[in-house]
C-alpha cells in the first residue's frame, strides 16, 4: 500500500473514531438520563464487577480530583483539543495506532466538554468494582476512550525510541 494511501487511512481513522466515540458517549448518557425508569440504572452487567448506576454527576476531573468548577474543565478540554489538532497535523499519519489513539482522546474530550457546557458537570454511569469492596471512580464512555487513547500514546512514546534506535557507530567508524 502506498504511503499516501496509508496516510489517508490514518486521518480517516482519526475522524471515524472521534465521531463514533463522541456519538456513543452522548447517546449512552442521553438514554440513561432520559429513561431512568427503564430499569437500566443499577443494572449488574457482570455481577460483583460491573454495573450501570445512576450518578448525580461529576463536577470534578479525573478520579474526582481537581476543582469543582466547570470553567476550568471547559478550558482544559479546549486546550487538549488544540493539542490534539496540532498532533493530528504533525504526526506521521501512517502511524495508524497513534491516529486511532488521538481519535479516541478527541471524541472523549468532546463528549465530556458537551456535558460541562450543557449541564455544568459530566454524566458518569459505569461502576467498576470488586465485590462492593474495591471501587473505581464512576466513569463514562468518554472517560474510557480517553484512558485507552492516552495509554496507547504513552506506550508508543515509551516503546518507539527503543524500536527506532540503530546501533551508533563506535569512535572512528563511519556509518554507510
Structure description:
Helix content is 57%, strand content 8%. With 176 residues, the chain is of the alpha+beta class. The chain has a 4-stranded antiparallel sheet with strand order 1-2-3-4, with no helix packed on it. A hairpin with a 3-residue loop joins β3 and β4 (134-135). α1 runs parallel beside α3 (96-119) and α2 (70-90) packs antiparallel against α3. It starts with a helix and ends in a 12-residue tail after the last helix. The model has no long low-confidence stretch (mean pLDDT 82).
Helix-strand makeup class: alpha+beta
Beta percentage is 5-15%
Number of strands: 4
Uncertain spans, ≥5 residues at pLDDT below 50?
none
- Average residue pLDDT: 82
The description of the largest β-sheet is: 4 strands, antiparallel
Across the major sheet, the strand order is 1-2-3-4
Order of helices and strands: HEEHHEEH
Question: What multimeric state do the chains show?
Answer: single chain
Distance between the termini: 28 Å
Helix content: 55-70%
- What is the C-alpha radius of gyration, as a whole number of Å? 20 Å
| Number of H/I helices | 4
Give the overall silhouette: globular
Descriptors:
single chain, 176 residues, alpha+beta, four-stranded antiparallel beta sheet, 4 helices, 4 strands, 57% helix, 8% strand
List the helices and strands and how they pair.
Blueprint: H1 3-34, E1 43-46, E2 50-52, H2 70-90, H3 96-119, E3 126-130, E4 134-135, H4 141-164
Antiparallel strand pairs: 1-2, 2-3, 3-4
Helix pairs in contact: 1-3, 2-3, 3-4
